[in-house]
Amino acid sequence: MRRVLVLGGTGWLGRAVAEAALRDGAEVTCLARGESGEPAAGARFVRADRSAADAYSGVGDTWDDVVELATDPAHVTGALEALSARAAHWTFVSTISVYARSDRAGDDEDAPVVEPVEPVEPVEPVDPTPYADAKVTGERATRRVRGTDALVVRPGLIVGPGDPSDRFGYWAARLDRGGDVVTPVLEGRAVQVVDVTDVAEWIVRAGRAGTVGTVDAVGPSTSMGAFLDEVRSVTGFDGRLVAVDDDTLLAQGVAYWAGPASLPLWIPVGEVGFARRAGRAFRAAGGTARPLAETVRRVVEDERARGVGRVRRSGLTDAEELRVLDVVRSG
Q1: Cα 146 vs. chain centroid, distance in angstroms?
Q2: Residue 56 and residue 21 share a domain
Q3: pTM score > 0.90 for this model?
Q4: Does any domain span residue 138?
Q5: What is the DSSP string of 163-230?
Q6: What is the domain range of residue 185?
Q7: 282-323: per-residue pLDDT in tens?
């Protein structure tokens, strides 16, 4: 039986990887603090502080695949030092945020990445600059120890049921509630996502196949208008989409991309290359992406179960959206 170790296996993606490995018939161990959620049912859970000297003493001896999801470079380096010699295959999960430019459509894994500013402190994936720096540092640590014998996965925007960021789910819940909905001007804007289950299952398959190299794990790019049409269709939305120009949104304190008082997935038109990556290596390595409509259906069902009116980490509150609408109507 294959043995898979997931470092960080209680967070959203980590748990999905563990679940996928279990479905694949592997014996799975998850090592984490356990503060991000529960481990996958059927996985062995090792609770550990990865900053401790003995963090990896309880995980076992040899592994067919180690999947590393950490952002903190010290954790990445510590795991490599402790476990690399005992791992037949090593996967480091990075991010497409590592790329230095986002203004060119069709870029692939050969595009230049950011140069980290040292030292990189432990960060959460909220502010993209230190997050990108930390992930590049983790990639380089992985290559320094493993050479070419490792898989570096750079996922795009991961979406699906249970997404803690609320970026994709904001639109599913907002259109499900109906009424006038504020959107950015849609022309020239794109959305590129990968379903959490699809990327998790591919990571497991790639580990089993011994895949190495660097791969952008991204789904097809689509226009933001087409994305909202899919959400409209699944939710039965019959309200009105009110497109507001960037200057007005920014003047009203609306933020790009994610977080409080934001319009999730909205990025400057000049940075649309972030949502138009090539994805050829992912497909060549057996990566697949389910139809966008299926992911939207999964997310709408999840949002309805969790409550479409709940407080969110990303998006506009009703009061914030009404303020923007009042400005548009008065203009």
Answers
A1: 24
A2: yes
A3: yes
A4: yes
A5: -TT-HHHHHHHHHHH-SEEEEE--TT-EEEEEEHHHHHHHHHHHHHHT--EEEEE---EEEHHHHHHH
A6: 167-191+221-276+290-330
A7: 999 999 999 999 999 999 999 999 999 999 999 999 999 999
